[in-house]
Design a protein that fits this description.
Distance between the termini of chain A: 45 Å
Helix content of chain C: over 70%
Structural class of chain C: mainly alpha
Shape of chain A: elongated
Oligomer: heterotrimer
Chains: A mainly alpha, B mainly alpha, C mainly alpha
Number of helices of chain A: 3
Strand content of chain A: under 5%
Radius of gyration of chain C: 18 Å
Order of helices and strands of chain C: HHHH
CATH architecture of chain A: Orthogonal Bundle
CATH class of chain A: Mainly Alpha
Structural class of chain A: mainly alpha
Number of domains of chain C: 1
Chain lengths: 112, 508, 141
């Protein structure tokens, strides 16, 4: 049970980072931390004690496989995470060029 | 097995990747192909809507084993047919409008490619039969929309896009988190299979936690108050065709649609959840309208009014859920849900039209400030007339479509003895009228100080606006019972009857 | 970059590239597959660019090539999937090729083909992202 709680704590660490950090890049990093805590949770859900990698071979008879579906989900989610992170970084770099700073306190044109 | 369903995803997805290749050779390819494919999708979706067959499609041909569905399912039932129709019709009109509007931007090919990608993602969300694929398609459409919001690459656009991305990513993580929790509990991802398993379960705290996570995640995507902070920035900074698409269909297809689909067809909803959803809806209805009054930027006003109108849609469904979970009269629930669906169609039509109109004003005058605009009705007669129609529709003046859908929701609220809700709906409708009168007065009427020489917008732009204005009037016909039977009843039935959806996927 | 970096990069790139290809073509037999292998391939390219290329014009050309090959490989995946609509059980994403024997390199029907195409796609996409960010930075300076 401990590991599940730890992954949830990691999620909260990411959330804390997003709320408190003032630097665009640090916000992106916090988002990544949040994301990966969920990936860890997903892999943990699929884990079975004593299970081996779910690859069919002739060597092992009646093997216990770990659940492959969460792993497939994590792989897909990593690809999506790559796209979102790339998008965020691209926007952050462009913001830096327009404003000359990564500080979100100085980037606030939109209000109301 | 009908092989047409995957085409809704294949065609826009393929177009999105053909455009960067062929677009390098001829510059006019993108702007011809995008409306063309969306017209084809319009034809298919309308013919689906008029036919009565509902079916599921198994991608890859992985048949169910012992009645447990494995593999990816695409499900076409009444509700998804309706949303598909909205997406393709508005997408078609917006893509025609964009032909001239987008001329001032560089890299037009990228615009159309992202547009197609967004449509493909939304179609995928609407058709997908399992929650993980739903998440994947949702991400496809929102990543495309992040890029489209920042398309102008000015200071404001970039800031809005960054805000949108941070909140959108948090929403996505919450959704992924709840997908993980659901998988943990049920060991399956298929919506029908999950609902089969959850039926036998008692409602536990764990399940309630998952439901709250889902409401928060999709609430963030649908911009229900208190999760609305990104919407006014993102929708007002995007190029106008994109704002029309975002406000018109994106927040419905990936926000409201999914909430409704999951709570009606997957969870056995409790009274508490129904009340929560209704209260959230009522809050967004009121606060959205109050915040809209004081706006100076025309597109920002429209964005806030989107929040308010989404509130109307949500409370309609909420009333239906409250009645169904208490075991009340089903006819009232049917009325409330039908009213909501009707308002959903109407909102995409008139909000699309209003954003296109605001885009036309911005295209000619290069400003969105109400203080500077004024008296444009003589110079831009088509824009002025169509926007006036849309404003009357959104504030609920007969004979426009908005009147009838709001009326149905209010009648349902009265019949369900929720008098406070009905009164609030009426009051918010009046507030809507107030700020749209202000909008009309300060943009199209009054004194024309700065823009004496502006001309009417080109044909491609006015064409879409005229069609949408005609739809604003024409959709009032849905209020007639025999028309309603064709358009709305399938959707209402598939929402109310949970077993119907399950039987569609798991054929015994 | 200095001569040592250039020489080492030259020597290592070949092995990284081969390793990426190995991961891709064995995707249906061992852990890995299109995405992991594609990321390694992109790594090889990026190493080359970091060690040698600083010419923005050249990079621009490379980016065009990368984005085109990305689109083409995705389209090929879609075509392979759509062909399934016409062969065998006539379903989208149908695995219509013979599945062969478990554990052999040529087996599992269309899955290795998808793996190879996804490998190219991921490599090209990562390279495009990297180049887009780099070119943007070059334009600022």
């Amino acid at each position: 049970m401990m590991v599940y709680i730890l992954s949830f704590i990691l999620f909260l660490v990411g959330l804390y980072g997003i709320i408190t950090r003032r630097n665009l890049i640090k916000i992106v990093i916090s988002l990544s931390i949040m994301e990966f805590s969920i990936f860890i949770l997903l892999v943990l859900i699929g884990y079975i004690d004593g299970g081996i990698a779910p690859i069919i071979t002739d060597q092992v008879i009646n093997p216990t496989y770990v659940d492959p579906l969460p792993q497939a989900m994590v792989l897909t989610a990593i690809v999506i995470g790559l796209a979102t992170t790339a998008m965020l970084m691209a926007i952050a770099i462009r913001l830096y060029r327009k404003y000359g700073t990564f500080d979100i306190r100085e980037i606030k044109n939109l209000k109301g | 097995m009908n092989s047409l369903i995957p085409l809704f995803i294949i065609i826009p997805l393929a177009t999105a990747f053909v455009i960067p290749i062929i677009g390098k050779l001829t510059s006019s390819f993108a702007k011809i192909i995008t409306p063309a494919i969306l017209l084809i999708l319009c034809y298919f979706s309308i013919s689906f809507l008029l036919s009565s067959n509902q079916e599921s499609y198994i991608v890859g041909g992985w048949q169910a084993i012992n009645d447990i569905p494995i593999g990816i399912y695409l499900v076409l039932d009444g509700f998804s047919k309706l949303i598909l129709c909205i997406i393709s019709i508005l997408g078609f009109l917006v893509s025609i409008y964009a032909i001239t509007y987008i001329k001032e931007y560089t890299s037009k090919n990228n615009f159309y490619a992202l547009f197609c990608l967004m449509v493909a993602g939304m179609n995928g969300v609407v058709l997908s039969g399992d929650i993980f694929n739903l998440f994947v398609f949702l991400e496809i459409s929102v990543i495309a929309s992040y890029a489209l919001v920042a398309f102008g690459v000015g200071k404001k656009e970039l800031e809005a896009s960054f805000k949108y991305q941070v909140l959108g990513n948090i929403a996505s993580f919450l959704i992924l988190f709840s997908v993980a929790l659901l998988y943990w509990q049920t060991k399956t991802l298929n919506i029908a299979d999950i609902s089969n398993i959850l039926k036998t379960h008692d409602s536990t705290a764990f399940l309630t936690f998952t439901q709250i996570l889902l409401i928060t995640g999709f609430g963030l995507k649908a911009a229900i108050i208190p999760f609305h902070a990104w919407l006014p920035d993102a929708h007002s900074s995007a190029p106008s065709p994109v704002s029309a698409m975002l406000s018109g269909v994106l927040i419905k297809a990936i926000g409201v649609y999914v909430i409704i689909r999951l709570f009606f067809n997957m969870f056995v909803f409790t009274y508490d959840i129904a009340v929560t959803i209704t209260v959230l809806g009522a809050l967004s209805m009121i606060i959205g309208a109050l915040l809209a009054i004081n706006q100076k930027d025309i597109k920002r006003l429209l964005a806030y009014s989107s929040i308010s109108q989404i509130g109307y849609i949500i409370i309609g469904f909420g009333i239906g859920m409250m009645i169904l979970s208490k075991g009340g009269k089903q006819s009232i629930a049917v009325l409330a849900i039908a009213g909501s669906l009707f308002h959903m169609i109407n909102h995409s039509v008139f909000k699309g039209l209003l954003f296109l109109g605001a885009g036309a004003v911005e295209y000619r005058t290069n400003t969105r400030d109400m203080g500077q605009l004024g008296g444009l009705s003589e110079n831009m007669p088509i824009t002025s007339t169509t926007t006036l129609g849309a404003s009357m529709a959104i504030s609920g003046i007969p004979p426009f479509n908005g009147f009838f859908s709001k009326l149905i929701i209010i009648i349902a609220a009265v019949q369900a003895n929720l008098y406070v809700l009905a009164a609030l709906a009426v009051i918010v409708s009046i507030i809507t009228l107030v700020y749209f009168l202000k909008y009309q007065k300060s943009v199209f009427y009054g004194e024309n100080r700065n823009f004496k020489k502006v001309k009417e917008v080109p044909f491609a732009m006015s064409f879409s606006m005229i069609i949408l204005a005609i739809l604003c009037l024409g959709l009032s016909l849905i209020a007639i019972p025999s028309v309603r039977e064709i358009v709305l009843d399938q959707a209402v039935n598939s929402l109310i009857d949970m077993d119907k959806y399950i039987n569609l996927v798991i054929q015994h | 970059m200095s001569l040592i970096v250039k020489k080492v990069a030259q020597l290592i790139t070949v092995f990284i590239f081969l390793y990426g290809i190995y991961i891709i073509v064995h995707g249906h037999l061992t852990p890995g597959g299109g995405f992991a292998g594609g990321a390694i391939l992109a790594g090889a390219y990026i190493l080359q660019i970091l060690a040698f290329g600083r010419d923005p014009l050249h990079l621009k050309k490379k980016e065009t090539g990368a984005s085109i090959s990305e689109s083409i490989s995705i389209l090929t995946v879609l075509i392979l999937a759509v062909v399934g609509l016409f062969i065998g059980t006539k379903v989208f994403f149908n695995n219509y090729l013979p599945s062969g024997k478990i554990g052999e390199l040529v087996s599992a029907g269309t899955i290795p083909l998808y793996n190879i195409l996804i490998g190219i796609e991921v490599a090209a996409a990562l390279l495009t992202i990297f180049l887009a960010l780099i070119i943007y930075k070059e334009e600022i300076e």
